[in-house]
Amino acid sequence: MSNKNNGAEAAGYAATGAAGGWGLAAVVGNMGLAGAFGGIAIGAAPVIAAGAVVGLAAYGIKKALDD
Questions:
Q1: Strand partners, 34
Q2: C-alpha distances in angstroms, 39 versus 21, 33, 35, 36, 45?
Q3: Contact 16, 55 (CB under 8 A)
Q4: What does the alpha-carbon distance between residue 64 and residue 57 come to, in Å, rounded to a whole number?
Q5: What is the 3-state secondary structure (H, E, C) of the chain?
Q6: Per-residue pLDDT tens for 15-60?
Q7: 62 C-beta neighbours (distance < 10 Å), count
Q8: How far is it, in rounded angstroms, from Cα 64 to Cα 67?
Q9: I need a labelling partner for 4 at 20 to 30 A (CA). Which of 11, 18, 39, 65 fits?
Q10: Around 14, how many Cα atoms within 13 Å sit in the side-chain half-sphere?
Q11: For residues 40 and 17, what is the distance between their CA atoms, to the nearest angstrom?
């Protein structure tokens, strides 16, 4: 197969991951972390960004397996 990166395909994976993160944030709602440092709130934006990162990781794994 081709070793060229496909930007449109990568963007699709990132968008799919972001949509999954948005769905998770919508279902779970506002989240928080608590520990010895106290507590902090986590809104939807970091969850959506993490979903995009997971989508790009899936794209990277796919590319590695295709080659």
A1: 39
A2: 22, 5, 6, 8, 18
A3: yes
A4: 10
A5: CCCCCCHHHHHHHHHHHHHHHHHHHHHHCCEEEEECCEEEEECHHHHHHHHHHHHHHHHHHHHHHHC
A6: 999 999 999 988 887 778 788 888 888 888 889 999 999 999 999 9
A7: 13
A8: 5
A9: 18
A10: 9
A11: 24
pLDDT: which is higher, 9 or 3: 9
Q: How confident is the model at residue 3 (pLDDT cuts 50, 70, 90)?
A: low
C-alpha 17/C-alpha 1 separation (Å) is 25
Amino acid 21 reads: G
Give the type of residue at 13: Y
Query: Would you tell me how many other CB atoms lie within 10 Å of the CB of residue 5?
Result: 10
Site of tokens 């989508």: 55
